Each structure stands twice: as C-alpha cells, then as structure tokens.
Amino acid sequence: MKHLMGSALILVSAAGFGSMAIFAHTAYADGVDTASLLAIRFVLAAIVLTVWVRIKGIAMPTGKKLRGYIVMGCIYAATSFGYFQALNYASSATVALLLYTFPIMVTIASAILGLDRFGPAEWIALTGIFVGMVLLLGTGVQATLPGIVLALGAAVLYSGYILLGSRLGGDTHPLAATSTVLLSAGSIYLLMALTKGIHLPHSMSGWVSVSLIALFGSILGIMTFVAGLKLVGPTLAAILSTLEPVVTVILGVSFLGEALGGYALLGGGLILAASIGLAMNRIWRQRQLAT
C-alpha cells in the first residue's frame, strides 16, 4: 500500500511538471515573456512553500548548506530559462524529450568525477540516446537550432543541479532545501523582470495559465514528489518521473496541435527507454552490492 500511494504521488508530480510547457505556450500567446513568467512562477511557489515549511516547523539550511542551495537555485533558474525559452523555438514535445537526455549526462559526469562507473549498460544507454536524438531531430521535427541548443543546454545545467544536490544531501529536509532553491531562483527572476520590465498577462486565460504553472506545475509537483520520494525511494521515483515528457507530448498533441512523426516518436521512445534502463540498472547494482 505504501509503494502504491508513493507511486501515485510521483505520477501526480510528473503530470504537474509535464503540463508546464502547455500552459507556457498559452501564457506566451497572451503577452507574457520568459523572465516575467518565471518570476511569477518562482515567487508564488517560493512564498507558498516557505510558509508551509514555517508552519510545519521545519528547520531551514544554514552555513555552507545554505550557500550550496542558493547556488543550486541559480543553476535551477538558468535551467528553467533554457527550457522555457526553448519553447519559443521548438514544440513542447521536442523540448521535453531533449531535456530527458539529462540522466545519461549525469551518468557520464559521475564517471568522469569518479562518483560512479561507466559500464556496458551505460554504453548501451548512451547509444540509445544518441540514436534517439538522431531520429527525433532528423525527421522534420518542429524545432529550430536555437530551440535545440537551449533545450540541450537546460539538460546540461539540470545535470549539474542534480550532481550538486547529491553532494549536499545530508540532514536538510527536502522541503526546506527546495524552499531555499525557489527563493534563490525567484529572487533572480524578480530582479530580471523588474529591470527589463515585467510583462503581465493581458487576459484571464493568461493569468490562469501562469497560475497553473506556479500552483500545479511547481507547488503541487514539488510537494507530491517529496512525499512520494519518502515512500518509494529515489530510484523508483526517477523511473516513474519519466512520465513527465510523455504527459507533455500527449498534451501538446491534444491541445496545441503538435505532431511527431513515426521516426520522431521512436526517437523519443529510445531516449525515455534509455533513461528508464539506467535507473533499473542502478536498482540491480544496488541489490548486488547488498547481497
């Protein structure tokens, strides 16, 4: 029952994060720019989550941990900018699938830094992702070069975010850590928006889209992920989170009229399969070490 509940929470989180690209397209069409959208998203999410942390009496990080999470917030801010800016140049499905090359990037970086080994399973996953990207990007996909570069850049930055987060770890409560990250990212985007001029939605539909990104795509997504993570553990959570780009693809086709050809779908499937394979290989390796 515990694993079932945890899995359900992770799937809700993946659906929340996966929906953000769709709402972003609506917000952009209503006059909102990337900096303003992310300022609203992060500030609203940071306020709600920080208040929740205070109500629960959860201790916030201090000292080196605090500085580390502030740096993570800066990296996450840059990651989000790359992802949401890429949506101006590529379909939401393409951006979401390219972002999900990050697991192999984390694996490669971990091997280079001596944090993990790069074995046959990792080579197979790397080959699968490379072939998947060729199929995805070489079949008339809805994307221009800036969109591809921004999406892959976001994947690189997110890999750095994950590696830094794994080094901090320790006794900091996940919600307190996330609150600090959001406050850091929110401060950056609020300053950006105020400096260059904030562009608010022109209509109610725009405000609804921005609010859903902050509430459903950020606050609910984060809190359900943290709750589910406690019940199922990080590896299963990582596997279930691969539903996120699937949600984006389905919503993009259903509501934005986006289309992926057969080869592009095969390429996206290879990228996701490689990510799932990496996570499952890690489960097997951990079990081997435990026996």
TrEMBL record:
Keywords: Cell membrane, Membrane, Signal, Transmembrane, Transmembrane helix. InterPro entries: Diverse_Substrate_Transporter (IPR051258), EamA_dom (IPR000620), EmrE-like (IPR037185). Its main location: membrane. It comes from the Bacteria. The chain crosses the membrane at residues 39-55, 67-87, 93-115, 122-141, 147-164, 176-195, 207-229, 236-257, 263-284. One of its GO terms (cellular component) is plasma membrane. Residues 5-137, 146-278 form the EamA domain. Residues 1-24 form the signal peptide. It is found in: Cell membrane. It holds the Pfam family EamA. It is a multi-pass membrane protein. This is EamA family transporter.
